[in-house]
Structure formats: structure tokens, C-alpha cells
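Continuing from the previous page of notes. For each protein in this section, the sequence appears first, followed by its C-alpha cells. Read the first protein now.
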Amino acid sequence: MSEAFQTIRHQCQCWVWAYQVFPSYARVLAKEGLADPAELHLIGSRQQVLDGLAAYAEAGVSDLRIEVSAHTEAAREATCMALAEYLSA
């Protein structure tokens, strides 16, 4: 959860480049219409991330793999706390 959207989006693009390299992942991305694997990530302010999680739930998603990535340890801890609070509610 951060206001540094462009920086974080760029980091995600660097991390997930392999999705486009492996044929099986590339087929899934193409099938889902994702031009950029970073679209798989919820990036944004606290409210934007929580709204994204709510949209997953409304779509029927019951299992998620959540990994927190942040530009500072303080931001990472704050994000983990906010997610824990949201998911335990």
C-alpha cells in the first residue's frame, strides 16, 4: 500500500518478467487478456488495495496468495498490519 504507484508498478514489472518468458504462463496471460503481468498485482493506496481485495471476494475468489512488497520496511510492516486487520474482520 503506497502512493508511489509508478515506482512500485515498475518494480512489479521487473519481478514478473518471467511470466512472459515461459510459454505456459504466456498462454494464461494471453487468455486473460493481460498485456502486462503487473496487472496481477494490487498496487495503490490502502483503500485501493482493500477495494481490490473486495472485488476479488465479490467475484467469488476464495483463495489468494498474498505477498507484500514495499519500498521500506516501515511501509511493509504497515501494509502487513492493514492486511491482517482487513482479512481477520
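Done with the first. The second protein uses the same format. Note its length before scrolling.
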Amino acid sequence: MLDMPRSCKSIIHSVMNYGLIFWGGSSYSANIFKIQKNITRIITQCRIRDSCKDLFKNLKILPLQSQNIYIYIYIYIYTYFICG
């Protein structure tokens, strides 16, 4: 039971990061964020109306918007300072 949240988190995180560059700023990102919240609730066995803010902190998961910001900052730093 203890490995299920870790394995689910790693699978979901990798899929979201893979597509984040392409659809991070699109209108579908709101739907993806809802899916992320629902999956987080399922992993932690919480109710559908529970807030996910604390769940993200406890599981050490970045919400979709924060992942989007992180990816774009990483791309900016890599592009202008490392490849520059």
C-alpha cells in the first residue's frame, strides 16, 4: 500500500511533464489540473470536496500551474545561460 502513492505519483508526473511544454498554456490545462486533483484525492483516499492544497504539500507534488512555471524557467535558464 505504501508503494502505490509513489508509483502513481511518478507515472502521472512523468506523463504531465512530457506534455506540459506543448499544452501547458492551452485551454485544456484547466481540465488537466482537475484530473490531477482527482487523482491526488484518489491516491490519498480523500473526499471529492476536500482541498488539494495540503494534499499536494504532503505528497510533495507541484500543482500543474507550478510545474508549468518551473518548466518555463528551466527552459529560459538553459537557453540563455547554458547554451547562450
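What the second structure shows: Residues 3-82 form one domain. Residues 9 and 22 are 21 Å apart (CA to CA). We return to this in next week's lecture.
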